[in-house]
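#random but structural
TW: two for the price of one
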Amino acid sequence: MFLNLLSSYVGTQEVPDGEGGTKTQYIYDDIWTSFAKDALGSVLLWLVVAFAVVVLAVGIFIRVKRNDFFRTYVKYAVTFAAGFAVVIIVVMLALEFFDMSENGYVFELVLVPSAVLFGIVLLGTAATYVCSLYSKKAFKVSLWTSLGIFAAAVIALIVCISVYYSSGDAALNNGADPALINDLGLYLAMAGLIVVLALLTFFFGRKDRKGFDSRTISYAAVCVAMSFALSYLAPIHMPYGGSVTIASLLPLMIYSYMFGVRKGVFAGAIYGLLQVIQDPWILHPAQLLLDYPIAFAGIGLAGMFRGVHALDKAPQVKFLLGSLVASAVRYLAHLFSGVFAFGQFAADYGFESDWLYSLTYNTYVFADIAIVIAVGVIVFSSKSFMMVVNRYNRPAKPAQTAAPAEAAALPVQEAAATAPGAVSKADTAALPPQMETPKKE
């Protein structure tokens, strides 16, 4: 049976391409790759659920019986989860590429730069972390070098997408008419949301710790990888992009809460760029920015209410409020994209208004965020989890100065402590009985 499936998969034939030429097509379309992708996605979904249950159960047991080993256990669990996420990403991306190739949807002008960008993120993160183990100077050099290469790759990707759009292949591959795309609306929506994101990030992130270190980069890489892996575990897929996942955005939201909205928005934007590889629906350069980096950069706002001290006893409420704002920004990005780019498909679903079509289509965002909030509230109710989270992104405390009377007494005390034969009270208390300072008769 396996050999029959394999022979069906590799068997090809030449068929007319509709333009006077021919193209290579598999004899039995979707008989193997699409089946493998869907079946493996279901298997991985249940594996992730089982893994989460086992890790949580073992963690509770260790917390109760071996509290001294709990931190070590968490490190091992996170490392294993990150490795598992990388395996999911590699396997599912490979099947995704095979499926697109099988159906003739591979457009190298976009996918190759996207794959290169993905590799740069992985290699840059690894190189920066390794360099941080040697010295701060090596860490800074590797960090700025990686960021420079990353910026160049992003610019190259944007240029390639613009060429891809200008060539008309974007419309051809997605069955769209470029004349029906509202360019002005897309550019205005893109600019407006960028301004909103910048203002919210600046206001709510003004007390965040500035700069990146090896820890923040490592956590960003782990959280982005976990979110990207979980995004493949989607029981509901929308016809023109988008899906309802099993809390795929929760790692990114936790990262934002731990390290602040500035770093959260940056990590969300990177995650959005990686989504181009997974689900590339591209009709227009501005639409791509709205649906991917801008929409998921908004997820980085999930930690915006962490600094509200009136809610310190209710971190679940902080997470809930931040998640609602983050999902609202994401929804607006998809809404404008649906109106100005995908609105031409409204009639196919019986909608006369592009706005009504987009408002209805993108309601999947609320279902997706509802799952994230439900799981997140449970996670943020754990005192052990909050003890770990609250160690990060605390504003630096100002150096405490001694009171005037104490400050005046310090030189005298220091002089007495340094006098020959002087023994402090602490030293005297630490001495064994036979070593105590003899009293005068």
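TW: number two ↓
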Amino acid sequence: MKYASEFRDPSLARGLLAAIVDQADKIGATKAKPVHIMEICGGHTHSIFRYGLDKLIHPGVEFIHGPGCPVCVLPMARVDEAVQLAERPEVIFTTFGDAMRVPGHRKSLLQAKAAGADVRMVYSPLDALELARRNPGREVVFFGLGFETTTPSTALSIQQAAREELTNFSVFCNHITVPEPIKALLDDPFMVLDGFIGPGHVSMVIGVHPYDFIARDYGKPIVVAGFEPTDLLQSVLMVLTQIAEGRAVVENQYARVVPEHGNPVSLAAVEDVYERRPSFEWRGLGEIDASGLRIRARYRSFDAEEKFGIGYGAGPRDVPEVEGCACGAVMTGRIKPTACPQFGRGCTPEMPLGALMVSSEGACAAYWQYGGARGVAAE
């Protein structure tokens, strides 16, 4: 690869679209009886809408938007706990920008900041480490968010803090994993899924074999995909070809970035620092066994839940969702964002009710920004 433009070549895209039409017709896909392909990653959802692939593709292929937005699937109770930490006078609370405006039951981190809490946006946990070095009299807490993509950087930062004995640095760990919620969706009898477009950035860390169960146990094809338009079109074609040929395997369209067995350095750091939680709550999916990570006992002093007595086991966690907000149904692919009664009415990017409208990977944000949905919402 020399340039991104190579993966945005109109002539190549036209050829892929023609091949998709051939395969979709071969398996009898129609608008009335479509093939349902779930793009797991929210980044893919945004690319699909940014490049208009949903409008260009065969009418018998329907994209189902998956739960691959780590900010979006964070339950409201965890946002409330983040705000609770941020409001402590001794704490400098650091977070990625996506999480600043996600509403909790009482307020968002941005609203807590406006009320006087010391909340700072950072681009990396290394920024939080530097704040801890410069502010030895303050407790610096990093909001550890994300799938396997961001988990290694947090793990490496905790290892570095341990080497430096930075006792004023800790992580509020909300790292989660991709394969477990996909299994939960496949076990849902109301979900109709014919194939998957697998997350490219996650797979860069974990490789392709963690998805073997999708093909082996459920007979569904999955293709790990890149994020450019021709990446996604080729991946759809590969899924359709598997269906047409009666195959179900894991294929790697994004081989220029994704190694088969993942990144060994990243995986080693994650294994050293983290262990599986018995269960973790996902917004829209509920509790999913072994789907979240927690900090191992050897690094307990860097665990904000242990240090400040919050999180699982620290008290009741029954926090109701906003009435009429359908984030859970959108994240699990049961409905499109425009079917939510709050979309564009009670919930907009300026005044969001849910994370899907503010996250850079949220499906509602994609519909609002690229899907012409503002007009739909105004109707």
